[in-house]
Amino acid sequence: MPPIRSVRNRKPPPDGFDDIEDTLLDFGNKMKDAENASNEGKSRKQSLWPIFRVTHERSRYIYDLYYEKEAISRKLYDYLLANGYADKNLIAKWKKQGYERLCCLTCIQTKETNFNSTCICRVPRENMKDEGAVECVNCGCHGCSSGD
């Protein structure tokens, strides 16, 4: 049997966590609502779209707090990444040029596409021949190319 974790063994969160805890709880509630939403009439991938959106919003919130606004410390940022409050692989991509607006990691994985290329939402809108709405099959994104 695995050992039972005690509340006393956990390290307390770093300073500044109290300031963003309410927002993180709101994201947690949104995630629960997305997980418990009805999936009637939707494909398997479409039922995951709300979960991808909440994960993206929560990760972007933490990314903006640390890199854009510089409102949280490095220690708190590392704590949030280590405890799964943000997707560290997605944030790592956001730091690279051309991936600043990336919606999810499945859009850049070439293994899951028909022609071993990235998702249609990664194509800049200027390069699209038709003016129809583009919607990603994987996450429901309407376009996450950087536009550079």
Automatic annotation (TrEMBL):
The keyword Transferase does not apply. It is found in: Nucleus. Pfam families: BUD31 (PF01125). One of its GO terms (cellular component) is spliceosomal complex. GO terms for biological process: mRNA splicing, via spliceosome. Residues 1-21 are annotated as: Disordered. Keywords: Nucleus. InterPro entries: BUD31. Belongs to the BUD31 (G10) family. This is Cell cycle control protein cwf14. It comes from Aulographum hederae CBS 113979. The lineage of its organism: Eukaryota, Fungi, Dikarya, Ascomycota, Pezizomycotina.
